[in-house]
């Protein structure tokens, strides 16, 4: 009986977190999940709809954008590393993305 009460109490505490704490949690999980919103929301215990409501807060949006930018920068660096090694797929991908004005598509 006591364990059930503890479990219920923990569930209530989880549901009663402040919005600020929920935002902090989802940002932490977003960082851990390489910016993947669906996974971060599941881990933080919020729905994606709520995440998009949080994005209306300029400071929250700025932090989300910083997280996303850091992972895009990381991916670009890794792509350049692959291109330097002569990875054909990476070269083709790059040309399709950046060389459209030269006829690559």
Range of helix content: over 70%
Structural class: mainly alpha
Q: Give the overall pLDDT as a whole number.
A: 88
Biggest sheet overview? none
Strand tally: 0
Note the beta-strand portion. under 5%
Note the total helix count: 6
Structural domains: how many:
1
Which blocks of ≥5 consecutive residues have pLDDT under 50? 5-9
Could you explain how this protein is built, in words?
There is one protein chain. With 105 residues, the chain is an all-alpha fold. The chain has one domain. The protein is built from 6 helices and no strands. It has helices at 2-15, 19-32, 37-44, 48-54, 58-84, 88-98. The longest helix has 27 residues, at 58-84. It is elongated. 9% of the residues are buried.
Topology:
Elements: H1 2-15, H2 19-32, H3 37-44, H4 48-54, H5 58-84, H6 88-98
Helix pairs in contact: 2-3, 2-5, 5-6
Brief rundown of the structure:
The protein is an all-alpha fold and 105 residues long. 77% of the residues lie in helices and 0% in strands.
Attribute tags:
0% strand; mainly alpha; 105 residues
């Amino acid at each position: 009986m006591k364990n059930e009460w503890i479990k219920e109490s923990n569930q209530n505490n989880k549901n009663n977190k402040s919005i600020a704490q929920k935002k902090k949690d989802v940002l932490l999980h977003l960082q851990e999940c390489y910016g993947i919103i669906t996974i971060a929301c599941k881990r933080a215990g919020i729905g994606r709809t709520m995440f998009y409501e949080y994005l209306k807060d300029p400071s929250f949006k700025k932090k989300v954008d910083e997280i996303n930018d850091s992972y895009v920068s990381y991916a670009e660096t890794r792509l350049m590393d692959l291109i330097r090694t002569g990875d054909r797929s990476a070269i083709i991908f790059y040309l399709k993305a950046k060389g459209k004005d030269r006829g690559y598509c």
